[in-house]
Amino acid sequence: MSNPLFDALFGIHAGKSTPFLRLANNQLISHQEFLALAARLANAVSQLGLAPGDRVAAQIEKSPEALALYAACVQAGLVFLPLNNAYTVDELAYFVEDSGAALLVCDSAKQSGLSTLASKLGTALETLNADGTGTLIDKANTQADEFNTAERSLNDLAALLYTSGTTGRSKGAMLTQDNLLSNAEVLVDDWRFTTNDVLIHALPIFHTHGLFVATNIALLAGSSIIFIPKFNLDQIISALPDATTMMGVPTFYTRLLNDERFTAELASHMRLFVSGSAPLLAETHKQFEERTGHRILERYGMTETNMNASNPYDGERRAGTVGFALPGVEIKITDSETGDPVPTGETGALEVRGRNVFSGYWQMPEKTAAELRENGFFITGDLAKFDEDGYIHIVGRDKDLIISGGFNIYPKEIELILDEQAGVLESAVIGVPHPDFGETAIGVVVAELGQTPELDHIMEGMKTSLASFKCPQKLIIMDELPRNTMGKVQKNILREQYKSLFT
Ligand code: AMP
């Protein structure tokens, strides 16, 4: 029997009593214990009548049992469909119905709200709570510690991850065993993970970053994980002296820098800090190096493609860039009208091809055809440019592009200028409806602690450095930018808030 993803990530650890997960209470879960838990869950789920290819939707808190459910799905050939914990019951209805999930696993607190939906759709409903209790665990507890691994091939689906979709309906990205395995192999190699590594894992496991990048790499390399349910400064600070690596979103790093306990001494056992899922401010990169001597390694990826690009492990990690295409991944930057590559330094649409790229959107052939070219290149929706040394700069999402009076405005260009102004911590530039220009740019600015940026002065300065059509028509101060759990600025919320500014 062969199941390449299971064999590579989990099977290799069979019989090992070495620690896999270290929990906040210092409890250790060995590889062997974890595999036994996964096997019991795989048996329990199979007894519910699920067969290879069926989808298992899970909206559950991060816990060892939740991670073991992912392993159980891989072992039983089921398609794992993790869901953001923030989704409401109404939102869940869409995901369960759209995916045709055969099983929905949720927290006990949501069970009664979901039971009508589950019976209407013929979906089995089980619970799994943050403390590792629940009906699914009760069922698993009576099962054997071994499971007959289901036969799977590299082209079979391993996971269905819905995109965060800030516009329109969320789409289910179909990820094959090969997509996940090839990317984990490349990253282990590129970032030099080994059995000696101890990874601080404080990311959610419903998202590609925490579930695939962090977990799959640690499993494949045989590293151990300090498993922290969610970002918690105290827990991270106490974990750092025992750890060698950490993966985080940019807010992890800004929050660490805001804490005086975070010193070079505390980070001295670490060999690598990785950042991704949202842009890391060049300023954060710089401050981090000044404080700790470490240069954060920024990488770039997305749900549909796994990881695409990374700054180099050896060599210059260039702040404000995402480095180069990973081995085996092709990246090109094209003119969105013609599809032809644009010259170095010019902004265009970032397209990517490789074993890491998903096989399409679940039951959405038209959306798939619109974004995944026949030649295998996926149009990511990100705008980017190559600098003269080949480093990739992400300039923003194409749907954030502002077209004012027929001219293109790339928000990032303006944000970089705003961020450099005295008293400005960070900024977001958005397009809002305008009676003359159709759309115009405005800048939302967050002040540095205790500072009051002089907006009129900043506006005057911008007029001399920028073409007039690019100058924001208005600057607004906000206490903080709206962000989702992955640290991404939610420009859709800002656009909604300021849509009537000029109309
Ligand atoms: P998700 O599918 O939730 O992982 O979101 C993927 C999107 O996050 C990408 O298409 C980018 O727009 C953004 N993203 C991820 N990593 C970075 C990065 N290092 N810098 C800038 N944007 C990023």
The CATH superfamily of the largest domain turns out to be: ANL, N-terminal domain
Number of strands: 24
Order of strands, main sheet, comes to: 2-1-10-9-11-12-13-14-15
Helix share, percent: 25-40%
Content-based structural category: alpha/beta
* Overall tally of structural domains: 3
Global Rg = 23 Å
Report the uncertain regions.
none
CATH class of the largest domain: Alpha Beta
Can you list the ligands bound to this structure? adenosine monophosphate
CATH topology of the largest domain: Rossmann fold
How big a fraction of the residues is strand? 15-25%
Number of helices: 15
Q: Could you give a short account of the major beta sheet?
A: 9 strands, mixed
User: What's the average pLDDT?
Assistant: 95
Query: What is the overall silhouette?
Result: globular
In whole angstroms, how far apart are the ends? 64 Å
CATH architecture of the largest domain: 3-Layer(aba) Sandwich
